[in-house]
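Entry 14. Two folds queued back to back today. First construct below, sequence then structure tokens.
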Amino acid sequence: MIAPMDMHQIEIVPAAPYAFARALDYLRASHTALLERIDATTYRRALRLAGQDVLLTVWATGTTAAPRLRLAVTGAVVDAAVLAAAEAQVRRTFTLGVDPAPFGQIVAGDPIFAAVVAPYPGLRPVLLASPFEALIGAIIGQQITTVFAAKVKRALYDLAGRHLTVAGARYPLLPEPAAIAALDEGDLLARQFSRQKAAAVLGVARAVADGRIDFAALAVLPPAEVITHLTQHKGVGRWTAECVLMRGLGAQDAIPAGDIGLRAAIGRAYGLGRHATEAEVRERAAAWAGWRGWATFFWWHHVQMERVARGR
């Protein structure tokens, strides 16, 4: 028997300017957006919030200059705690509370970077739904293509995840750390994980499940301490930790400078004739201090949209 669903709506007012349509463009083109359902105007994602499985549905009702979003929360129980958690989740995922004006001033000081940002007015970083999702995704994505990484992640989600059914439609939920921790290594090897990545994914899932990795505690630490803590775990290097900081914890100034895509894009844009080194990326990024995470997001998105334009 399917439990009856409750649904409530609230309005969210982002800091202006903000273009939700551009966030949807980003998600449609992203190989990391595996659990979201995106159409021309709407974002849908099933999540476990305040102890309940719920479906979040978000759409824009305002303009870029005067942005307004509508959030519908659907689930068996949608009480005040669930609504508050859902609003916080949407604000965090879409970086809605940050005034983008200081970032605009940074961009204006670098004409080359300004040309990267200019095609996407009103866009701001879109985070992954949780630091755990960012950690698992970064480990899987090490040294493989984004297309293959998406295939492997989807296999993991299918293996260990659950679904929420709303109005006859099934929406996947990110597997809980304990569900991944309970898997056997062979389960992952059979789904094209390397032995090293299988061990790393299982290891961090167990560390999150038993509290050795506590994202709430990490969120209030300086980035350098977060990197030190995370890199103590097998399979987590600096690039992975910086991806978690940027895309999972929303650290505004974190930059995964060793990222090969970022190094390639910066090498091309600044006329190096080759990939920039990690040190050169960090040196160049000093001009974006305070906003290096935002800068990385725009470089990645620009490369992504170029690939879309080429039909890749």
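Second construct, same run, same settings:
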Amino acid sequence: MIATRTVEIIGVPMDLGGNRRGVDMGPSAIRYADLEGRLRRMGIVVKDHGNLTVPDRGQERAHAPEPKAHFHQEIVAVAEELAEKVAAVVRRGGFPLVLGGDHSVAMGTLAGMARAGKRPGVIWMDAHPDINSPETTPSGNVHGMPFAVALGLASTPFPSSLRGSADARTAALVGIRDVDVGEREHIKKSGVAALTIADIDRLGMANVMERAIAVASRPEGIHLSLDMDVIDPNEAPGVGTPVRGGISYREAQLAMEMIAATGKLVSMEVTEVNPILDRANATAALAVELIASALGLTIL
């Protein structure tokens, strides 16, 4: 447990990265599910910085979608601000907990870690690898690109200040099951460890997480990027891009518990909670449970 450190929450109500509206309400839904109270009861000091300001796609200042990277100017501007906020948290010894919003926020979190002199290994839990570039994307949705940006596989229109903040040699994808053609090539080219849902079926979650942790363990620690759509939609219905056949509740908890047991978790983001599609805020409540487990909550 990181009770001796302060968890600093930054909300990023972003939905510009995808087609479906609603994930901009994710930070509010997670907070409403008693995130702060749950962490405080664990003995963790919590500081909530509120939400960054994100342009709405309906506002005049939001640019029209571009075919290869929709709303990239607005997304980059928010990611740059988030990077500065995260870097400030890390420099003062805090633990950054970023609440999305769509998964495009991750490029800002990882860039912020790098700006603070930290390049942790990455465990990216997601139904999708999010490793498209503007050249390979079939949709133009930026929430399918943040891992490519962080690994330096995507360049223009993303600035160098957001690129190359993670190393593929110490990064692992976990639970992927919906992969675009271009993403397959990027995975092979980069050498990132790709642990699919089929690997979890064959090997079991414990073995998969042991491998992911071994790959991602660095002296600077581990960053966990948790997209709630990695979990099966029967248990996490309120997500931006649901894909059936995901991991179970217990598999998700086991993954969090194993990461916590390493004592190496230094930063985390939780993304793609969509209250519009949820049932009684169940997905946000599950997100709070998983955050607590990742930060050290145990059964006994």
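Quick look at the second one. The first strand starts at residue 6 and ends at 12. Strands lie at 6-12, 45-51, 95-100, 121-125, 171-176, 193-196, 222-227, 265-271.
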